Amino acid sequence: MELRHLRYFVAVAEERNFTRAAERLHIAQPPLSRQVQQLEEILGVALIEKGSRPLRLTEAGQFFLAHAKPLLDQVRDLKAMTRRVGKLERTINAGFVASTLYGLLPDIIRRYREAHPEVEVTLHEMTTVEQMQALKEGRIDVGFGRLKSEDPSIRRILLRQEPMVVALFPGHRLAAGEGPVRLVDLVHEPLLVYPRTPRPSFADQVLALFSDANLRPDHVVEVRELQIAMGLVAAGQGISIVPASVQGMHHRNVVYRPIGDKHAFSPIFFSLRHLDRSPELEDMLEVIYAIYDDYGLPHNRESL
Ligand code: BEZ
Q1: Which of 111, 162, 268 for a ligand 1 pocket mutation test, highest count of atoms within 8 Å of Cβ?
Q2: What are phi and psi of 163, to 5 degrees?
Q3: What pTM did the predictor assign?
Q4: Share of the chain above pLDDT 90, in %
Q5: Alpha carbon separation from 297 to 30, 33, 147, 179, 270 (Å, rounded)
Q6: Measured from the CB, is residue 93 less than 6 Å from ligand 1?
């Protein structure tokens, strides 16, 4: 059995259709059908129910699919990591969600560069969902994001739980008050959430915050990205709930107030490929923990 058999079968099983699978694999349909037939002959069992439309897997087919997918993920990881090990120059490609740029990300990168000038660090802005795909394809080596993806080929290290704050126009009735705002006081305000796509996103984290508290905002407006949400808040079009680090943006017409509810936190994850134990990433983690210690920020501690 060759890797090719696994790739072809997984494409057919996921697309539930030979024509679409052949398109996805950029091959013609007859050789694809032959390869899947050959795989069934090698295994001596049927993987696809004869004549089923849309295509259905047999019990053996479902078992084979569940085990073939992680194997293919491992092969892809192995490719990306071997290329990384074989490179003479040392590099880190890091993906980050926009909000981290206004908080500790610049400190982290600066301090890492000072300590490790021989390593080239390149930054790429992308959502957490985009980071997962980029990690798997080897386009980035680490992702700083906020969502907990369940992808088995990606390892997530929870760095810390960052408090969320509410962003308001300075003339807003809640802008001048003292102490934390409660979520229940925000439900009648137009709520600006971002990013609109891809989902799930930070927008869903904010909406879950309300639903976990048995609350439902009257009017939710989805916008493309954080900067648009802040611009609309400044224009008095609504309020937005953002991680505390966004306060570093210092928007002229936006004020921030803490949120009192006990679930109003957004996690920050350090995501990497499951098998990756490279010293560059270990050093990066150490720099992050050192900065947390300097700022006295509560955090989790894990090593690679
Ligand atoms: C943080 O704010 O904790 C953070 C930001 C960017 C990368 C890693 C951590």
Answers
A1: 268
A2: -65, 150
A3: 0.78
A4: 77
A5: 60, 57, 20, 20, 16
A6: no
* Ligand 1 lined by 268 (C-beta under 6 Å): yes
Fold of 85-160+267-295: D-Maltodextrin-Binding Protein; domain 2 (3.40.190)
Ligand 1 nearest-atom number relative to CA 243: 2
Per residue in 97-139, pLDDT tens? 999 998 999 999 999 999 999 899 999 999 998 999 999 888 9
The partner residues of 145 in beta bridges, in order of sequence, read 269
> How many Å lie between the centroid of ligand 1 and the Cα of residue 217?
29
Q: Where are the domains of the chain?
A: 3-71, 85-160+267-295, 162-265
Give the position of tokens 């349909």.
Answer: 29
CA of 100 to the centre of ligand 1 (A): 6
